[in-house]
Design a protein that fits this description.
This protein has helices at about 20-35, 40-60, 60-75, 140-145, 175-185, 190-205, 215-225, 280-285, 290-295, 310-320, 340, 385-395, 415-430, and strands spanning about 5-10, 85-90, 95, 100-110, 120, 125-130, 135-140, 155-160, 165-175, 235-245, 245-250, 265-270, 300-305, 325-335, 355-360, 375-380, 405-410, 440, 445. By secondary structure, the protein is an alpha/beta fold. It has an eight-stranded mixed sheet with strand order 10-11-13-12-14-15-16-17, sandwiched between helices. A five-stranded mixed sheet has the order 3-9-8-5-6, with no helix packed on it. Strand 14, helix 11 (about 340) and strand 15 form a beta-alpha-beta unit.
């Protein structure tokens, strides 16, 4: 564990403030706990609490969302909510020079039902955090970690103990970090420039974060592109991209890398998450990133977009015109409000080979998809009105060999995604022919679709 020293700086008032990042952290924790919890009674107890949290998050009421999600996490873990669960840990600036100090702000996502003082141990000092108050602690990792002199650039999870629970606060140690990000924001390479501009925005507007951004990784990718050490076509993944009105992340299989354009047309999967999690949801949650993993196993190009009215159109245009990819088959999926965006694929010039719509908020629009192979699911713990509209649509479509409707028991609007993934890819595999095996670099042939392990 990192041994560092700290200096208590100040107490401040008005410390109750939850952000989208606080909600996102809890949803990712719920995602992991849900997968690890086999006890049905715990899942049943947690499900309505998750549903309430998701509803509050969608309404922008982050404090209430955090409180319900903490209760749900406690149910899944078989424990109780403590006052420390409401404590937030945020560095005032998530980027620091090697050997320099950073300010860690301790605050509250909400006022706990038992407003007790919480003991917070960080950087060699223990602080008593009073309810509704905040404390700023000066943390210098280099003071107690000699190895940092050998590795001056690192993404660091600073260990803390909040009450009796271990937590981490993320800090990027980066030599010349601000200057390098400013340089990227003026890069001639458009992808590198977009990475730099977004990093500038995130550092200036920390309350807009929805997930912990791997700043070091973004800088390295941007510098590789800007300095010509790598071409866009050589990247296995692009952690952030922007095209017209749409932000997205993308991963590319081996056969789609190295040449522009790739020699063969590709299968492309575009996923549209609920706006609560943003473009990283399908990489970092929703079954611990299982959708991205299943796309990789099949050798598909995978793109997860941030919801916008033209998201699919913009992502496809970027893939074809910027990345030079010819599309063999297009597959789409959407969750919640993202389902409404996914539905716009019906008007694209490339007809989707199959679609999966999970707990759609706009079920009435699904009628545009009746002629397409369609997978549809809803959690039985989801809102009654939404569930009823989805069930009504399923009855209208009726029995068809290219339509599957699953009502998933003991889950709600968020966890229905993870629970649906096995059936989604089983459905996709019926309508998207396997990619032909590629020659293995070591001789012989390699299977492009290894066993998925979906049911493991």
């Amino acid at each position: 564990m990192l041994a560092v020293f700290a200096l208590l700086v100040a107490h401040q008032a008005s410390a109750i403030q939850a952000t989208a990042l606080d909600v996102g952290e809890r949803l990712r924790a719920i995602d992991v706990l849900w997968a690890e919890t086999l006890a049905l009674d715990r899942r049943i107890a947690a499900s309505p609490l998750i549903q309430e949290g998701v509803v509050f998050a969608g309404a922008g009421r982050n404090s209430e969302a955090c409180e319900f999600l903490d209760k749900a996490a406690a149910e899944l873990a078989g424990g109780e909510v403590s006052a420390g669960d409401a404590v937030t840990l945020r560095f005032s600036s998530p980027v620091v020079e090697p050997g320099k100090s950073a300010e860690l702000r301790l605050g509250w996502a909400y006022l706990p039902s038992k407003p007790d003082a919480v003991s917070v141990a960080v950087a060699g000092r223990t602080v008593q955090l009073l309810p509704g108050r905040s404390v700023t602690v000066e943390v210098n990792p280099a003071w107690g970690e000699p190895d940092l002199a050998l590795t001056p650039e690192i993404g660091y999870a600073v260990p803390t103990t909040v009450g009796t629970k271990s937590r981490t606060a993320y800090l990027t140690i980066l030599k010349g970090g601000r200057q390098r990000i400013d340089t990227l924001s003026r890069a001639t390479d458009p992808q590198a420039r977009d990475l730099g501009l977004e990093l500038q925005r995130l550092l200036a507007e920390p309350l807009t974060w929805t997930h912990e951004t791997p700043i070091l990784d973004w800088v390295y990718v941007g510098e590789q592109l800007d300095q010509g050490r790598k071409k866009l076509s050589e990247l296995a993944r692009l952690p952030f991209a922007r095209h017209k009105q749409t932000v997205f992340r993308a991963e590319f299989p081996r056969q789609a890398r190295g040449k522009t354009p790739p020699p063969d047309p590709q299968v492309v999967l575009i996923a549209v998450p609920s706006p609560t999690g943003g473009e990283s949801s399908f990489f970092e949650s929703y079954g611990r990133g299982r959708v991205a993993l299943e796309a990789e196993r099949r050798g598909w190009v995978f793109v997860s977009v941030r919801s916008s009215p033209s998201a699919l159109e913009d992502a496809l245009e970027w893939l074809q015109q910027v990345r030079g990819i010819r599309i063999r088959h297009l597959v789409v999926m959407g969750h919640g409000q993202g389902a409404g965006v996914a539905l716009s694929a019906a008007s694209l010039p490339i007809k989707p080979a199959a679609a999966a719509i999970l707990a759609p908020n706009q079920a009435s629009f699904l009628r545009e998809w009746i002629e397409l192979p369609l997978y549809l699911s809803v959690g039985l713990g989801d809102g009654g009105r939404l569930r009823a509209s989805v069930e009504s649509l399923a009855r209208e479509i009726g029995e068809r060999p290219d339509f599957r409707f699953d009502q998933i028991p003991n889950c709600e609007h968020f966890t229905v995604v993870a629970e649906s993934i096995p059936a989604v890819f089983e459905f996709f595999d019926r309508f998207v022919p396997p990619i032909l095996p590629e020659p293995d670099p070591d001789g012989g042939e390699s299977c492009s679709i290894p066993p998925s392990g979906l049911d493991s």
